[in-house]
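User: C-alpha cells for Pimeloyl-[acyl-carrier protein] methyl ester esterase, please.
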Amino acid sequence: MRTARRGTILWLPGWSMAPAVFDQLRSELPDYHHALLDYSNAKAPDDMLALTEAAAAKWRANSTENSPLIIGGWSLGGLLALRLAAKGLTDGLILFAATARFIRPKDEAELGQPDAYVRQMMRALTTDAAVVETKFRQRLWTNDEQRAGKCDKLPPIGGWAVPALLAGLHILRNEEVKSVLSKIACPVLLIHGVEDEICPYQAAKELADGLPQAQLLSIPGCGHVPFLGREKEIAEEVRRWWNEQQHGG
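Assistant: Done. Predicted C-alpha cells:
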C-alpha cells in the first residue's frame, strides 16, 4: 500500500556536507515527500542564497493546508532555514545544531565562534581544502562519539568545490537572524546536542527563548550531529511534534 504523504520536507545540509547525510533520516520518514538541496557547486554566497530561496519558493508554491512545506536544516542549513522562515517561505522548521548568529564577540563566546576562526579556515582553504575539512570534522564529535566511529558515517570529504566552501563560510560570517526571531511565526522543532562545540548548546536555548513557537529537544552526550545514529528516534519526535502542530496535541 502506498504511504500517504503528510507534506514535503526540504533538507538543507551543513557546511561541506552532501545532502546524502540525511538519507537514513529520510528513510525513517516515508510519510513525507523529500526534497534536497546540494550546495557543492555554488560559486558565491549570493548563488547559495538564491538557490536556497528558489527551492523554498518552488515548494512553498506547491504546498497546501493538507500538504505543507517543512524545512529541515543542519548548522549552516539551519541558519539558512531560519532566514527563509523570516521571509514566510515555510510552514514549519526542523533545526539541527542551529544558531541565530554563528560569529560572536568575546562577551558571547558561549553562543558561537570567533570571527578569527572562520577567517583562518577561509585562508587555509586556498592551500589545502581537505585539511580544513578534516580539522572541522574532528570538532563535530564528543570523545565518546569518536570512539564509537560515528565520524565514519558522514559523506566523504571533498564533495564541495572550494568556491562553495568559501561561500558557505562567508554566509556563516555575515548572516544573522537574531534580530528577526520574533517575526518567525511558524512552529520550530530544535534538536541540539548538549556537548556541541560548533554551535554551542546555549545558542539553541537562545533560539528557543526568541522564537514564538519553539520546542527544544536536548540530546545529552551529543556533539554537532544530533541526528546521526538516532534517526529512528528523531523521526518519531518529528511526527509527534508535527502532529501537535496540526491537531493541537
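User: Anything notable?

Assistant: The domain at 8-247 is CATH 3.40.50.1820 (Rossmann fold).
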